[in-house]
Amino acid sequence: MPLTRLGLSNPVAVAVGCILLVIFGLISLDRLPVQMTPSIDRPSISVNTGWRAAAPEEVESEIVEPQEEQLRDVPGLVRMSSEASQGRGRVSLEFGVGADMNRALIDVINRLNQVQRYPTDVSEPTVNVGTSQYEEAVAWFAILPVEGNTRPIVEYQDFVADVIQERIERIPGVSSAAPVGGRAFEIRITFDPYRAAAIGVDLTRIGQQLGQNSDVSGGFEEIGRRQYTVRFAGQYEVADLQNLVLEWRDGRPVYLGDVATVERTMTDFRGGVTQNASPSIAMNVAAEPGANVVRVLNDVKQVVAELQRSHLTPAGLNMVQVSDDTVYINQSVRMVVTNLLLGMLLATSVLWWFFRRVRATLMVAVAIPLCLCFAFLVLDVAGRSLNVISLAGLAFATGMVLDAAIVVLENIVRQREQGREAREASDRGATQVWGALLASTATTVAIFLPVLWLQDEAGQLFADLAVVISAAVIASLVVAVVVIPAASYRLLGDREMKDRHLSWWRNAADFVMRLTDTPRRRWSWIAGLTLVPLLIGALLIPPADYLPEGNQNSLFGFVQSPPGMGPETVQSEIIDPINDRVRPYLTGEKEPAISDIFVGQFGSGVFMGLSAADPDDIDEVLEVVNREILAGFPDTFGRAGRRAIFGGRGGRNIEVDLQAGDFSDLIEAGQIGFGVISQALPGANIRPDPGLELAEPELRLIPDDRRIAELGFTRGDVATIIRAFGSGAFLGEYFDGDQRLNVILRGERWATPEELMSMPIATPSGRLATLGELARLERTAGPNQIRRVDRKRTLTLRVTPPSGMPMETALEVLRTEAEPAIRAALPPDGVITYRGTAEALGETLRNLAGSFLLAVVILYLLITALFRSFKDSLLVLMTIPMATIGGIVALRLVDLVFGQAMDMLTMIGFVILLGLVVNNAILLVYRARDGEREGLDRREAVRQAVGLRLRPILMSTFTSLFGMLPLLLLPGAGTELYRGLAAVIVGGLAVSTLFTLVLLPSLLRINEEPASRPIGTREPVTA
Length: 1023
Fold this sequence. Notes:
Low-confidence stretches: 1012-1023
Shape: elongated
């Protein structure tokens, strides 16, 4: 073969090439970004709009619906969902994988600009590309006051945003850093309604007066030799704002200070954060896609240390890191590297046992670092990262890359054992098996083509595995036909070679020939080894799960607060008791110990995250949290679970969306659905979004238009007055030279609805009236949140199945046991859809099934082209059912020991198995047909093929198995991601190798002529 002869003619050049490959591979390894998992492209854009003090229904009608109207036909849009809650609206746009997000972003911004108008105090919509920053957070920090600092931590929100957030977001690789838990400042004008009414001040004119007080430039004037800027300093300072003249009455001014007090103060309490039971401000750090998470967080830690010295300590603050993804990343990487090195050692030991020659063993073993370095180079060029998936691919490749080198060196050694000189043996040994190696390499690489075409989340995870294994296998072919012959020519020398196990291979070949010696035996083996595996596989195949949840030392939980419960009540009746319950576990008085816990209140719920002092106790901590810490709160429900490694739809979350024209029908169906799902899936975590009742207390003021007009008001004026008596009416902004603050007009607090309706108001007509004369009060209830999917009001039941229950099983239970009862409660136009992980699971199962079938077709056609026979390639594919049942049985056994589900990562093992199990079949079929072409009868050709190829088949199989065993057996961080994958490959490879040695001879000997020589006699085995 030309490549082999080229290497034999210049062994020094081959050695130099190997050294250069190692150098560039190590350089690429240093350049590769280190992450937990591969970057997953989830094309999405979110639009967030704030409207202080607005109810969900107003947010829906004035913000969300107009935005949806403009965004509904954005090109490439797959789904649009929105939420309207108190003071905030959010519209989320999901696009297909591969969408041009730059164009989509421009389209979204342009369409938002076409929204005709927003209410005056609505903040400018912010547009973000990507998923929630909380899902992508790689670290959390807590800012706490040091001992002796009595200033409330909530007052440091602006300090944290201006000093810490701004500095951290400048770090390369940081996408965002968001502080939460503090309270911003505002300029509050608190008026006395009785004094204002007595003096006759029209509250609706205060905003107009403030709007006329601003700094104005009068231009530039040149006087003498100098040019002066003319400026009118019309803006009041906060301290002087009380001197604002509202009116001139009876020859004297009416000042704002006569009816109101003006102060710079914090906004109302709407929720906060506690860290280890102490008030704090929390801040997350999210990394950019593709960034080196380890390097980014190291930079963040250095910046935090600098800020601690320069700004935080002087301010009386301490910033501590309470969550760090790099801990699990480093543990997982170390675990995979350990498995990889152990696998290399085991594979090398297997080689030595077969060869019993140190030099020969080392020559094959050198293929491992060479192929891994080439894989690093390809990963770098392809823009991939070093993560648990790609490292697992390298570990799997450890055994696979030895196959080609084993076959070549084993054939070279056989040539030497038959007495040929070193150079001829090296050339002949590589040339004879070149065709079979090319076929096996091409098939192994080809089966990954359908995987690379998958565009869903699981497909993006598989891509790293496909790239790594394909690159390593391609490199192994080049190493086998170039490096191994040159090395054997130089290193094996002229010493005599002898196979110490030659009798084993001959006896094994004779045994196989006896097992398949009659047509009846052959057809029995063929039927048994093809039909029985299909039947067993159909009975034993486990239900499918989506992505593994992971085993991080991190839990996340929530408590749904009762409808209408105020933030301060939530703090005192839920958050404070949670902190009291968890405190003994923090101090070590109770076991298991908890190292860190944050509890935060946002919107209508309480959220918490915590970690165990000992990572091995995380399951016990989870049980304690659900049994003691989150239990027992009246009219609430709460649950904690593991934080999903993959985020997004990787969190085992089934979203049951209910849609109907009447929202009351949705509430009724949701209540029924909650009950039937709780019965059908005991132990499941069910969270309705929004709540299951319209129980948000509401004081609804119905305007009296005749009386309003009679007193000289408009509906807009009355709305401003009502807002002023509530959370405050927005009057404008004030810039203090450092930041912009909202100016809020607000009345003194009232205690009862009756007191509110009796508030006096000065009217433009000069008469006094009460608020009750302008509007009628009704006590009612409304939603605390409104959810919409594709512009229709939606109630979503978020179901997390019990731990250990596969997603496919949970979905089947929901469809068969829960859905009929829910559908009966919905009106005829009602719709039930399943989204979240449920949607992703169905999509991925369809894609994987199609990819598996396509891989089989590609495999068949490729082998056909290489063998030049449709029949022989079909014989090779007959080994696939045995490999499949081997993988399923191994997965079932691992599930009994470790609790391993058949998730998406595990399923890709069956695709990888296709490329592995056919390699042995290719070697046997290729050698048998070569023997027939050399003039041997079919019987002798098959016997010789088994005798010649048994040793390399067993060597490659055992090196692959022992190379992957550490991935299967050793526990540790990250092993839950690839243990199932290893089980499928190890089990399938072992079973298929064992029975391929019986099935293929049976297939090859069909229509064989009767034997002309007794089995006991044999001709010399030669190649």
